[in-house]
Hints:
Elements: H1 7-27, E1 44-56, E2 73-85, E3 90-97, E4 104-112, E5 116-130, E6 134-135, E7 144-145, H2 163-166, E8 168-169, E9 172-185, E10 191-212, E11 220-242, E12 246-259, E13 263-267, E14 278-282, E15 287-301, E16 304-317, E17 341-357, E18 360-373, E19 379-380, E20 383-384, E21 388-389, E22 394-395, E23 401-415, E24 418-431, E25 438-453, E26 456-469, E27 494-508, E28 511-523, E29 530-548, E30 551-568, E31 583-603, E32 607-626, E33 637-653, E34 656-670, E35 685-686, E36 694-707
Parallel strand pairs: 7-13, 11-35
Antiparallel strand pairs: 1-2, 1-36, 2-3, 3-4, 4-5, 5-9, 6-8, 9-10, 10-11, 11-12, 12-15, 13-14, 15-16, 16-17, 17-18, 18-23, 19-22, 20-21, 23-24, 24-25, 25-26, 26-27, 27-28, 28-29, 29-30, 30-31, 31-32, 32-33, 33-34, 34-36
Amino acid sequence: MRITGSSHGRTAVLLLVGASLTQGLQAAPAPEGWSCQWCPAPARAEGHVEAGVGYVSEDSARFGRYTGRDEKGPYAIADGEARYRGDGGQYLEAEARDLGLESREARIEGGRQGLYEAAFNYDKLPRIGLATSRSPFRGVGGTDMTLPSDWVPARSTRNMTALAGSLQDADIAHDRERFGGELSVIPARNWHLRARFQREEKEGIRALGGAIGPGVGSSRAAILPVPIDYTTDQAEAAVAYAGARLQVDVGYRGSYFDNDNEAVVWDNPFATANQPERGRISLQPDNEFHQLFASLGYDLASHTRASANVALGRMTQDEDFLPFTINPGLATALPRDSLDGEVDTTQIDLKLTSRPLERLRLKAAYRYDERDNETPQARYPYVIADALPSPDARTNLPYSFEQDLVDLSAGYQVAEPVEMSAGYEYDRRERTFQEVDETEEHSVWGRVDASPTDILDIHAEYARAERDRSDYELVAEIVPPQNPLLRKFNMADRDRDRASLFLTLTPYRLVSLSLSGDYSRDDYTDSPLGLQEAEQFSYTLEASLSPTRRLHTHAYYTRERIFSEQTGSQSFGTGRGATGADWSADNDDTIDTVGLGLKFAAIPGRLDLRADYAYSRSVGDISVRSDRQTLAPFPDLETDLHRLSLRASYQLREDLSLELGYLYEEYDADDWARDDVVPDTIPHVLTLGEGSQFYQVNVYQAALRYGF
């Protein structure tokens, strides 16, 4: 058939032909089971809502510290989600969780696929620390805390006769709320624009130690309930291009922190003769972070890809300094009005991956990380604890570092069920104003992944790393000076060995067994004083059994042990034996965890049951040995946690179900540093006290779930 005439006429004829063909195709019956992949889908909506009530049996700050279920009594259950898909690619999704609790979240997202997307999110998380803490200070939650008018100061908390009668609740807790939005637009083929903003607000009270007094050995301290009123804004904007071989992403991100409180002042509860009446301590200063970033990916060949990521950032802090002391009789001139802090950061990641042969994989990567601290230095003739001018001024040390990290690896499939991999890493770091200018670490590793039979999978890996340092030299500006034989563990010579093993056995379709283990050992070969060795291992045994399609069970056991040994010199000795050490300490922690669970379809399609139980016990042992005196051992640190969860779901009808739940949790801890500590337990430190380290809580839940 030949078509002639104007373009409008040709278009009309083509449309008529297309329509007739479409009608013909529509008239023909579709084969059984066939569906049109590209045809528009009809609009649809689905989701569910859940509403009910829960009940907590006991007050417990520790149990409810991240959920808000810290108080005895009922709470509301309110959850839901909904999804809508239009026939033109439009969509809308909404989700809400735990709206009846203090730990709640919600998100809504929508748009048109391939054109634009927008989203809004909100979440709230409580953090409850010491809900039973008590303090004599008035004005808790503010920046000016005073003592009662009848307060009797003393040099020891045990002689503060008005303390017991003046204590009031000072709950250590805060709420974090976060909300924000995202927008994503595709203006043209291969292009993508996106923007994101998020605000986080924290309000509440935290504990902060405030020292006050005339000097070392005679100073005192109070644990202060200081306010939290922070706002952090984060923003990001970027443009991306994604072609067949080239992908580029360029953008900006920033973070802006604001603290509404500059400082806290408080009455000195130890203010006897010749002691300052009040103290002051500054709080976190406002600061900003800005960063430009870019990433690039390019397919050099069908099996080779190169990528690069670059990020340039700057952190600034220019809050005005407070005077050295609130005591006007000890006024000392500040060398600067503010820190004028500025830190530039540079991060560069380069990566090349290739698969030159079907069984061979290669990777080469390089990372450069720099922190260039441009904060100006000055000598600060400070005042000690609002009471005594320091005989020496101190100079701030703007720490900087550079890191070069090289990573090379290769993997080869030796046979169909066996793949072997090996790699090498080189890590070089340079530092300023620290005891070691440069460290170098070389690491090698090897790994085997194998499936020798249809029922067995094996993963095994071993790695060896050796770190060497330049000369260890004390930093003259640090006062008081450290022992010249001390080696800080993050800059000391170190040999590290790591190994891991994972086995999975599936002898039958309904049975699965697994064993996993990890081991690591650090040996600090040239540290006369400091950390000598650290060892950690863990293993897990896990089994699952499904004797019928209606019943599934699982069980596991995990043991983890963490051990370390360190040495020190109480006499500041440098010539005592080969190391100068006159004491040593071992830390040995063991954690055992066991768990059981089952799922049972009691009435298929109608009643589902689930039960889970977990028990965890940890024991911490600290032993100290001394050449100078006989030391009694520290009591063991012990914790026990039991957790039992039961759930039942009964289908009342196709779109409605009854959800029942029960949770039992028991926690007990023996901690000599916390148990029975009240505000006057420590003579020279006025504390907030500690609550009980034991709780037993039952939680009951009942809700209706409606699906649509």
